[in-house]
Amino acid sequence: MRDDAAVNRALNLYADAVRRICFIHLKNYADVEDVFQEVFLKYILYERPFENDAHEKAWFVRVAINSCKDVLKNFFRKKVCSTEDVDTELFYIQDNDRELLDCILRLQPKYRNVIYLSYYEGYTAAEIAKIVGKNENTVYTWLNRARKELKLQLGGDPNG
Amino acid sequence: MDKRIHDVFNQIHAEETLKQKTASFLFDEMQKRKEAGKANRLRYAFVLATFAFIILVSSLSYNLYITPSAYIDIDINPSVELTLNRFNRVIAVSPYNDDGEGVLKMTSVRNATYTEAINEILNLMAIQGYLEQDGLLSLTVQATTTNSENEILDELVTKVNYVLQIYNSNATTEIFPVSEEVKNYAHEHHISPAKYLAITELQQVDPTASFSSCADHSISELRNLAQEHGGNHHAENPAKENNMAQDNSSNDREVGENNNRHYRSHH
């Protein structure tokens, strides 16, 4: 079991990434809290060493995505959410970005993942494939489709 | 669009309250698990200690049970030895000759009390005809304490007298204690202590007599040979002097020079 220092370090380094993944998948704040705590609890109980920081971060991302999936498998939960549904205070999202965020949240969960991991975390398709457990070509396909859909929603040319 | 998507996500951060709540939750969990681990270790240690204690007690009890405390040798020419533990139970039986082996094969006296064992063996010997003739039945006892030795001797006298009466046997009997040294010498030559003493008695008048050549003779034959060669006294116990008086009364007790009790009965 990891110690207090490891807990503090992990929270400082990976809290935002985990929070973002929870944000793009989960509807309500209670679920966000549960998944957030669950991911870090798994981290302190995970005894195998990581090869490096990148390996450690990829572990957090994968566990967060899987934990959100587990919560969403619950029959009584809605699968789609928008910024209006989320009951957290999104005071930190600028108004002109809310529309884009809304469009992202309307994508299928698998597309939301690849959009986030590619555009924000900067993972390559190969790295995303390892994280989500699919092959690289599938990730390229999802990225392509996600971009087209976003452009369509935003009113732009999907082929541009 | 790429930059816009990046900027959108860049505005999403983990709330401080969420981080603090999570940190608090994690520290509580770690504490609970440490205490549970300690409790488990204590439980495990207790179980191990209990197990070790049981093993120790069992092992000590077993050792106590299997530790020899006394030896009874019966020699009428089936020659057998019973090894007793401190609880007067038979823990081993050993034949000294083929006849003895034949008798023991027909008995089941392990873990029985020595009185039950003696009763069974003597009855079997009587049934097989070993007590019918005017032979000599020798029983010797070697025990770690004098008290238990005397107790066993008294019991043997009673038992032997009873069996001989039932079968109307004319056998002469002698029941006496021997020292550990005599018993050990007898063991070395794979004969009963009574036979060992008879052979050493013979060797005093016939130095050519050897243990190997005399082992197949009965004790009465050895005594007769000793008398023929001019010996008219019994062997000295190498460890204790054991003078026998020539007294034909039954169930006499004679006290030798070193306070050894010597029983002899005639039927």
Q: Would you write up a description of this structure?
A:
The complex is a heterodimer of chains A (160) and B (267). By secondary structure, chain A is an all-alpha fold. Chain A is built from 7 helices and no strands. Chain A has helices spanning 4-25, 29-45, 53-72, 95-106, 109-120, 125-132, 136-154. Chain A is globular, with a radius of gyration of 16 Å. Chain B is α+β, with helices and mostly antiparallel strands and 267 residues long. A 7-stranded mixed β-sheet of chain B has the order 3-2-1-4-5-7-6, sandwiched between helices. In chain B, strand 4, helix 5 and strand 5 form a beta-alpha-beta unit. Chain B is rod-shaped, with a radius of gyration of 36 Å. The termini of chain B are far apart. In chain B, 30% of the residues are buried. The model of chain B is unreliable at 231-262 (pLDDT under 50). The interface between A and B is medium-sized, with 35 and 26 residues.
Layout of helices and strands:
The complex is a heterodimer of chains A (160) and B (267).
Chain A: H1 4-25, H2 29-45, H3 53-72, H4 95-106, H5 109-120, H6 125-132, H7 136-154
Helix pairs in contact in A: 1-2, 1-3, 2-3, 5-7, 6-7
Chain B: H1 2-10, H2 16-66, E1 70-75, E2 79-84, E3 90-95, H3 98-105, H4 114-127, E4 136-143, H5 146-166, E5 172-177, H6 180-188, H7 193-205, H8 211-214, H9 219-228, E6 252-255, E7 261-265
Q: Which overall shape of chain B is indicated by the principal axes computed on the Cα atoms?
A: rod-shaped
Largest sheet of chain B: 7 strands, mixed
Total number of strands of chain A: 0
Strand order of the biggest β-sheet of chain B: 3-2-1-4-5-7-6
The end-to-end distance of chain A, rounded to whole angstroms, is: 50 Å
In a few lines, what is going on in this structure?
The complex is a heterodimer of chains A (160) and B (267). Chain A is mainly alpha-helical and 160 residues long.
